[in-house]
Amino acid sequence: MRIGELSRRTGVSERLLRYYEEQHLLKPQRRPSGYREYSEADVGTVRRIRSLLAAGLSTTTIATVLPCVREEGERLVPTCSVMLADLTQERRRIIQAINDLQASRDALDTVIAAAPADIRSAANSAY
Fold this sequence. Notes:
The structure is a single chain. The protein is mainly alpha-helical. It is 65% helix and 9% strand. Strands 1-2 form a two-stranded antiparallel sheet. A two-stranded antiparallel ribbon has the order 3-4. It is elongated.
């Protein structure tokens, strides 16, 4: 199938599909005319890419783990033990990012709470 059909079937823009190819996440065949030719399996690959992106992984990490996951219904299942170490490391990174954001939120809460009541009231009425 051509890129437009893959885009239609996956809901992913052609531009983004080309980006996935640049990142070595998709490897379409090329027709003699130069047009990309995608297989039926690429539909599933795009779904797995989207799931891994939604999980907070970068395309660099996805390129590493993508060959080691398969779909079982709506969920992804690891097929390589090495991948579990990579995913555990990514999970730690995400937890740290969440903790950093919570600390930032707490610092903002402290600053906001220190504002005089009339300023907080005026700010609240502006929204």
